[in-house]
Amino acid sequence: MPTIIWNDLLATGEPKIDHQHMSLIGIINDFTEAMKAGKGAEVIDECLRGLRDYADTHFECEEAYMARIHFPHLEDHKREHQRLLAEIEGRLDELLNRQPPAREVHVFLKTWLVDHILGWDFNIIQHAKETRE
């Protein structure tokens, strides 16, 4: 059973971004299920690689959208994207040297989801709505 379920409270109203956020929730739920089943380091690695691929695609799309709507904090948001990508890469590097506990990775994923969608992304969508009005 999924630990995070998509609902209207997570929707930004921008279909492409919402679809990508649903993919992120899928990554987190897949990881959670694998963790519960005790699948270990291989699953952690696969999950983080999926997250990195997701982030590359999502950030590129999101940054293009922010540029189109003239989002005033685009550079700040790009820095946040780079920080998150660096953290993901650090976690991947960590897998080569030490296996982080699955719970630690799970907390990272859920925190990232909440911070990114409910924090940054809603600000972008709010700006887009204000500029249209």
Automatic annotation (TrEMBL):
GO molecular function, one term: oxygen carrier activity
Residue intervals of the Hemerythrin-like domain: 16-125
Stored InterPro entries: Haemerythrin_Fe_BS (IPR016131), Hemerythrin (IPR050669), Hemerythrin-like (IPR012312), Hemerythrin-like_sf (IPR035938), Hemerythrin_metal-bd (IPR012827)
Alphabetized CDD domains for the sequence: Hemerythrin (cd12107)
Any Pfam family the entry gives: Hemerythrin
The keyword Hydrolase appears for this protein: no
Family affiliation: Belongs to the hemerythrin family.
Name of the featured protein: Hemerythrin-like domain-containing protein
